[in-house]
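User: Predict the structure for this protein chain, please.
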Amino acid sequence: MGFIRGAFIVLFSVLLFISLLLMGASLTISSSLEYENVQQQVLEVTDELQDELDLYFTDALRDKFAFFQTYCLSNEQINLGEITSSEFSSLEDLFKGDVIIPCDVVLEGEEFLFNYAVEVFVENTYYKEYTCEFTSCFSEEGTPLFLISEKTKNYFENRFLTFLIFSLVLIGLIFLFVKNKTNGFLVTGIILIVASLPFMKLGGFLSSFEGVTFVFLKIFFSNSHAIFIKMLVLGIILTALGIFLKFFFKNSIKKEFSLNEVRSMVKKEVGSQKKKVPQKKKGPSFFESLKKMFSKGKKSSKK
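Assistant: Here is the predicted structure, written as structure tokens:
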């Protein structure tokens, strides 16, 4: 019976470790794909993203910057849809409708224009309504830009909730099978700490690789260190709680004793009870009473 119990605990622990890894990865991706974070990350990898996906719209904007400055002397905004130029064909593919650039942005300088173009690019890509399912979007979409969209964020958010529920069920089963329930906190805490370690340096590790796949992975796991801290702190709290309950509440934990220990405890208890019972003084016997009566009679006759 003990072997079966131990086997189940090992099985549930391994499954919990895998589930926590997948839960952490899903949480990392969904948090990394927050709109503000995507904007910042895409700005940092725009050159790589354009090279890999053949999107050279920012280069086109820089080449036409002098033209934009002249155009803005007599206009308040630039409608790129009205400019018939092959350099802006990528913009027509990426954005639906006209792309409007305020002349105030152009007058701020070339770098300001570049950042504005990236923000427009991210906003249109992020909030675009994709009609395909997540898995089918890889084949239906011309480019994998849907990976940095709200659709992808929601998909991994749902996966996080799924793995969270599964992990809680496994934790409940571990508590059910361990004899000493305080060990449930220790097992869960240690597994959570170990599962957090891969996220400690994941973002920096992915940054050392090149290619379109790693460009997206850099964005996906840009928030990995923050998730590592959260998982690590929670694991330390659970482990510390298990240690606290184990050493400071020993009296409330049911202990098992051998038969000999029980017998010796009973003997000691019976012996202590006997010592506590007061001994009654014995009265005079029948013959002693008669003897006293006769002696009293003799004394009275002499008188």
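The chain has 16 helices and two strands.
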